[in-house]
Amino acid sequence: MNYKQLTGTDLLVSDLCLGTVQFGSAIGERRCFEQLDEFTDLGGNFLDTAHVYGDWLPGDRARSERVIGKWLKQSGKRNNYVISTKGAHPKLDSMEVSRVSREAIITDIEESLKCLGADTIDLYFLHRDNESVSVCEILDILEAARKKGYFSKLLKGDTIPENVAAIYENEANYKIAEELKALKACGITPVQACISYFNEQPFTAIPLASFRSIEQMKETVAGCDVTLSMEVRKRINNIKTFVSDL
């Protein structure tokens, strides 16, 4: 895999980010370790998790973070990885109750660090927003966490252009799906075409994918080395409809 620098940081991340939403729940520890080992061998260095992942099962909380933390400790690979995690998700039995507060956010960060066995978190996201809490207050909370040394980086976000937010359930995307399926004749699977399309964008875009098997992972990672023809990319771009175009 190749590597890209995340905008506003000196972090170099692989062309593909490993999603771990099912780690410790649908995917057991042994298979998680196998995926992490294989992803590392394939050149991956970017993991995405969240403090809430696995909480839909009874018993231990933060199952995904715990499995990752155990693997990082056993493998000694913490310094080789960029780790992204998320907090402030509502409790699953009270989804209507916001946890975008100083106490909840700081608690989640500290618990995530403990579960991951890490001193810092490389990228941190709030899993939910609360429009009644001002942006200034949220930034103050995250700044307090930064001053405690909980984050390895502080990424300054810019306003997201409106045309990035695509409408997914539309005829254009169904046409793109057919276009991608047609590439099978060229030996390119739809998922490989998707990975290639993201990686060829003029802005930094890192696709995130989760896997049921090592074979599925290998197929997807192979997409990092696929280059779509200019003709195919033009056809997809001509089909694609963005919010700002409506």
Q: Could you say which overall geometry the principal axes of the C-alpha atoms support?
A: globular
Count the DSSP helices.
Answer: 8
**β-strand amount:** 5-15%
State the order of secondary-structure elements, H for helix, E for strand. Answer: EEEHEHEHEHHHEHH
Strand order of the largest sheet: 6-5-4-3-7
Rg, Cα atoms, Å = 19 Å
* Uncertain spans: 156-166
**Helix/strand class:** alpha/beta
Alpha-carbon distance between the two ends: 36 Å
Mean pLDDT: 89
What's the number of extended β-strand segments?
Answer: 7
Biggest sheet record: 5 strands, parallel
Provide the helix percentage. Answer: 25-40%
Polypeptide structure, described:
Helix 3 (102-116) runs parallel beside helix 4, helix 5 (171-182) crosses helix 6 (190-199) and helix 5 packs antiparallel against helix 8 (230-239). The chain is of the alpha/beta class and 246 residues long. It has helices spanning 29-41, 63-75, 102-116, 135-147, 171-182, 190-199, 214-221, 230-239, and strands at residues 3-5, 12-14, 17-19, 46-48, 82-87, 123-126, 208-209. Strand 1 (3-5) and strand 2 form a beta hairpin. It has a 5-stranded parallel sheet with strand order 6-5-4-3-7, covered by helices on one side. Strands 1-2 form a two-stranded antiparallel ribbon. The longest helix has 15 residues, at 102-116.
